[in-house]
Amino acid sequence: MIAQHYKDMLGSKSVIREISEWSTARGKEIGYDNVFDYSLGNPSVPCPPQFTEACLDLLEHTDPVALHGYTPTLTLPEVRAQVAESLNRGFGMDYTANHIFMTSGAAGALAHALRCVAVPGQNIVTFAPFFPEYKPYVEGAGLTLRVAPPRVEDFQVNFDALDTLVDENTAAVLINSPNNPSGVAYSAETLTRLADSLKAAGEKYGHHIFLISDEPYREIAFGGVEVPYPAKFYPDTLTCYSFSKSLSVPGERIGYVAVHPHAEDADYIVPMCGQISRGTGHNCPSGLFQWAVGRCIDLTSDLSVYETNMELLYAELKKLGFTVNKPDGTFYIFPKALESDANAFCRKAMQYDLALVPGDTFGCPGYFRMAYCIETEKVRRSLPALEKFVREQYNVQL
């Protein structure tokens, strides 16, 4: 007998993937250059040449038995040290290699972090809008995801809802800043208040409540915005990171968990990750890519195109009368739809070869996401289609 839970999941495929698949199919009909595909958050800029050079050098000059062999259970110590040193330089922290565990992307990092701090039956609290894959990540660990409704005026933390959702069975609060899908970064004021709330809740319920901070978009920040580092505000923080966006290497699936050195039981968490790997079949990410990111630890791709695209879209959306918060970073923008049913809005957009993702899947009905990690030339060509769409379907007068 097969597992019914996963069989049931077949009926609830990712909406984002379904729209991306529609875009691909439509592209075969009219040419993909003519489909304005804002569905999938797949980086559109190349990785830095230094990353390619690092991979080639490793392949050409490293003993192949060592390069392609199993890495240590707790992942490569020299790379863990390089990650720790980079975080210390960037954020004034005091990590050591013993606080870093390399993972298969941010998803792998989250899978380990959740299992480190929670046991089946507990709950995890997050804030809408949120990345929809959090639900299977959390439920796959035997936990329940509680979602605070969005604070749509600025997409900062909804503290009124937080107070009602955190209880004696809450193991952690999960945040994502800069946020997918809103593009908003949590402010220092928000993070200070969040830290105070978690400390107070921990005292009330008699146990530490962890903060799990999902940060794959940390380096994509606009207009000189400084994205605060959540672990600076709260010691019981596990930081989950991926190099997918900063280095434009999503297919390599490489990231890490960083354990705040002053977190509860901090010295146990990385060794625990090694044991969690045994139970989940993780068993260490690629050694080649661990070494490669270690050599490129403070580099990024040329991420400036995302800000260019954001400015073009933000200006056009405002001109067309959309309610929209200007993103602080990421490569997403999250406007309010021109009707209450964002699913209907996005279906109508398809008639104009615009692939948009309704906000319901992010826990925020009535909004939609545009992933603008596409060529700037294509963004520009999409603007007349967007204008025609809202003019014809919603009688927008310019």
Provide the fold topology:
Layout: H1 4-9, H2 15-30, E1 36-37, H3 49-61, H4 64-67, H5 77-91, E2 100-103, H6 105-117, E3 123-127, H7 134-140, E4 144-148, H8 159-165, E5 170-176, H9 188-205, E6 210-214, E7 237-242, E8 255-259, H10 266-280, H11 287-295, H12 304-319, E9 332-333, H13 342-350, E10 354-355, E11 357-358, E12 368-371, H14 376-394
Parallel strand pairs: 1-10, 3-4, 3-5, 5-6, 6-7
Antiparallel strand pairs: 2-8, 7-8, 9-12, 11-12
Helix pairs in contact: 3-11, 5-11, 6-10, 12-14
Overview of this structure, please?
The protein is α/β, with parallel strands linked by helices and 398 residues long. Helix content is 42%, strand content 12%. The protein is built from 14 helices and twelve strands. It has helices at 4-9, 15-30, 49-61, 64-67, 77-91, 105-117, 134-140, 159-165, 188-205, 266-280, 287-295, 304-319, 342-350, 376-394; strands at 36-37, 100-103, 123-127, 144-148, 170-176, 210-214, 237-242, 255-259, 332-333, 354-355, 357-358, 368-371. The strands form three sheets. It has a seven-stranded mixed β-sheet, with helices on both faces. Strands 9-12-11 form a three-stranded antiparallel β-sheet. Strands 1-10 form a two-stranded parallel sheet. Strand 5 (170-176), helix 9 (188-205) and strand 6 form a beta-alpha-beta unit. Helix 5 (77-91) runs parallel beside helix 11 (287-295) and helix 6 (105-117) packs across helix 10 (266-280). The longest helix has 19 residues, at 376-394. The termini are far apart. The relative contact order is 0.17.
Short key terms for the protein model shown above:
single chain, alpha/beta, 7-stranded mixed β-sheet, globular
